[in-house]
Write the structure tokens for this entry.
Amino acid sequence: MAMQTMTMTPARIGRFKGEILSHAVPQEVLGRTGRQIPMPKNNSDTYVARRWLPYGATAANASSMNQFFQNGPGDRGNNMAMAHQIQEGVTPPPDSIVPQDTTVVIQQFGCLYGYTDKTYNLYEDDIPKAMIEQVGERITLVNEMIIYGALRACTNVYYGGAGTSIATVNGGLTLGLIRRIAKNLQANHGKPVNMVLRASQNFGTDPVAEGYTVYCHTDLEPDIRDIPNFVPAEAYASGSPIANEIGKVERFRFITSADLPSIQDGGASVASSGGLASTSSTNIDVYPFIVTAQDAWGQIAVRGLNSLDPTHIPPGDKSKSDPLGQRGYVGSAWWKAVMIENPGWMAVGNVGSKVLV
């Protein structure tokens, strides 16, 4: 994008000068969840989270937590108990515990707007103020996309209809599909989410009613409302809905956002899907949805006074690169990283969406 000049933005003088109209603002939904990690300065560019594997687990099955106990031959409960029975006067052999580390490298992101001294001094609207607002909204959108991309890489994946990959998805969101996900999360001892980050620039959490949270595009809202046993958020008997929450089905709470895009024309043919929505009318659009239990993933969060490095350099500041002080800049740099800490405590679904008539 080019620097803002007087000729780039036509003025409204000579016509009735109306108010600055509202514009689309990205909404933070994913950024308010996950394990929030404040990263202090001068502590490397790599963050390493550690957990200790529970008894009987190995690195291969640790992501499924207690699948090592859920799956196995014979009477698993009795086998577990008998393995811990000891003999009188006989010291049992000691066991050891094994750590498992999850590593993520922190990356820097940034955005920058520019304007001229003529725009700053003569233009009718406060361009720098508008740019400052846009920077904040842009950071929100970029962070949502960083998280969305990272969480979609989860290996615990489900597909709508008879699909076995994104390219073969030919079904929508159903009660049976979300029950399969619930069964998996519960078997892995995934705990329902009961805390979300406060809607402010600082660290802190607010309690919410328990449930597995589902994040998806707003296009799926009609499909969700048609699921049997759906309870709209406005009908909750107690507890406050999460921001953008439309309702719940059994153990799941659905949060929608227009900023979680579909994969256009990414699925099976429209004919094989029974007529699900498609951009090109050839292959259906695939809508990823993300299901999380408590502490399934973590993020280096953009929260607190030390997490952003904002810039506002007004025209008039002279330097070798701008000896006459003719340019001004508004922007920010920030650090971000997202990591899946336990793939067995979250899932990614891929489904089509109904065509509304």
